[in-house]
Amino acid sequence: MRIFMLTIGTRGDVQPFVALGEAYVQRGHEVTLCTSQSFAPMITERGLSYAYIDDSILQFMGSESGGMAVERGGGLLTWMRSALELSRQIRPHFRQMLDEAWQAAVAAQPDMILYHPKALGGFDIAQKLGIPGFLVLLQPIYLATAEFPMMLFPDWPLGSWYNRVTYRVTPLLQAAQMGIVNAWRRQTLGLPKRSLFRGELRRLDNGRPVPVLHAYSRHVIPQPPDWPDTAVTTGYWFLDQHSSWTPPDDLRRFLQIGPPPVYIGFGSIAGKNPHETAQRVIDALVVSGERGLIATGWGGLETNRLPDNIFQIDVVPHDWLFKHISAVVHHGGAGTTAAGLRAGKPSILCPFFGDQPLWARRITALGVGPEPVPQKELTAANLATAIRTATNDLLMRQRAAKLGEAIRAEKGTEQAIAFIARHLAAPQ
Question: What global pTM score does this model have?
Fold first, then answer.
């Protein structure tokens, strides 16, 4: 079987697809993953074929304008305002991304497609090619439920009616790009435009529900009982480092000369002033008295003249590194959240926007981390307090370790493949 995967975003949006793709390759299937060029080496070294999308959107998110947008944080209205502003600035790149994805799909001649909604075109490509399409989500955002509100809304105790109604705005998340998508559908795919309010949960060509895979753990967010059987929570799709990977000598020495350090990293985003953020992080470690590992990311935290008890790293596989630390401080991206929980270490989340506050709330509710420290409230003092709690609260550490055991026992990619196989075998 020829499988086409489409995603866009940071490493946390791409790595789960690589993990699932590798599992399919090991079963003898051909897998093509279409995403930003920066991830090509990671994709091809796992036996997948890479299909090109340029890095323009990633580069913009790492720019000053992108940093200012994510630093706003906030709920639905703030998110939509930022999305509209960003859309105006990178509108040509969205159209280019759609064209490149379509060209890659035609070349791959796939039998099915799995796609992240941020890549915009997966739903439409499945329709045009007449192949099964599977929507892949890294957080619960599309399917309405009475159990909890859509993640951009406050978690108010107003009951099931409130929770359900919040999902009616989910289609609006693509409002800023719908004009681009419809122009592309008409001009490139030869398809009629689609309504924004129709959403992507039901196909336009045959009216059938679109199967939805949620690539996170039921132990973190239980699957709602009111979801249809076309939706599943599979467990995380983890990509372990190659067995041949070895840590740098200076990192190994730092880990050996003292107690386990606290890891601090904000992924590929650190707001509009990463220098100030880095200084607050350093001061927090000094105040807490803990050793620290500071990850720079893709232009995130930048540091100079670090104290002897703080070590700076660039890219180190989380599945190796997190075995050697005492706690994880991060922005709340889905990928880093999953890695920290899997390792069984307490987590301190410092969210910016999007799904990050959702994971922060779940960490606190599960008792595996202290109250979150939103980026707008990040100071050396309150981060130091959170670090002390995460490193000294024995019950919290025990709960984190137990949750890690449960997550490590899940087989997310196997569950995903079984779910997909059932739907492919169902009468069409």
Answer: 0.93
